[in-house]
Amino acid sequence: MGARNAGRNRGTFAHRARYAVHHPRRVPAHARRALRDAWLRLRHRDHIGYYRAVMASDAARSAEAAVGHNPSREQWARIGRMQFDYLVEHGLRPHHRMLEIGCGNLRAGRLFIDHLEPGHYYGIDISPHILLAAQDTLVRDGLQAKLPHLTLANDLTLAFLPDGHFDVVHAHSVFSHSPRHVIEECFAHVGRVLAPGGFFDFTFDRTDGEEHQVLHEDFYYRTRTLVELAAGYGLSARFMDDWEEMPHRQSKMRLTAMSDRARTVGS
After folding, report:
1. Among candidates 176, 179, 172, 131, which has minimal Cα distance to 151?
2. CA dist., res. 226 & res. 221, Å (int)
3. Cα–Cα dist 185/138, whole Å
4. 7-37 pLDDT, tens per residue?
5. What whole-number distance in Å separates Cα of residue 118 and Cα of residue 169?
6. E strand or H helix at 51
7. Per-position DSSP letters for 103-130, written without gaps between them
8. 183 with 237: CB under 8 angstroms?
9. What is the per-residue DSSP string for 178-226?
10. Distance between CA atoms of 66 and 55, rounded to whole angstroms?
11. Would you tell me how many other CB atoms lie within 10 Å of the CB of residue 224?
């Protein structure tokens, strides 16, 4: 079910017009997003600043709205469980050290924290509002003794993190909101923090047609584009075909250091 209708360009006027005809009740919400997009683009020229403001706007409604398009609490929990179950089935072990990029309010992070040994989870996010909500999640789930790290980040250079430290790096619904230069910044630096044999799993909005964006919030990439971009930084990419069977609109890819192919964690 991943990346359904992957050939469509959702940024065209024709697509938006068809969508409005078939979903008239959603038009006011989209119009509000478009107005917010225009206003925030005037105030924030860089994408990180822009999307931090988007997160603040969404978090003002609810923490769940800031990590998904205003889902119910049940849907929030279901998507977190789906991420967790998939990663455990594909190599995450309790002794691993994990970095979650875009940890949000710990939709999946609360399960990763509980699964991992104390101090082995490190979550970063660009939004101070959502990190405060993450602290509330820790308290609600009684995870204080697990001593997770939650850190505000201003870019994806990961410069404040040590070399070769993380067995698993994870980013869910991050690159779906990122222009190419932000993704490239991450690819340029994530290999440095990966431990020997470690891997980096991320989701993205996939298109088989023209790459495009909707407002400045949603970005659609061809698989080949990301594979080639990763290779330029010594990272080998594998498209996770079985994720496509999951009830989620995004696709998933796994990166490993080319020099580590034979020693990938969970292989």
Report:
1. 131
2. 7
3. 30
4. 665 555 455 555 455 556 666 776 787 888 8
5. 17
6. helix 47-61
7. -TTTTTHHHHHHHSPTT-EEEEES-HHH
8. no
9. --HHHHHHHHHHHHHHEEEEEEEEEEEEE-SS--EEETTTEEEE-HHHH
10. 5
11. 11
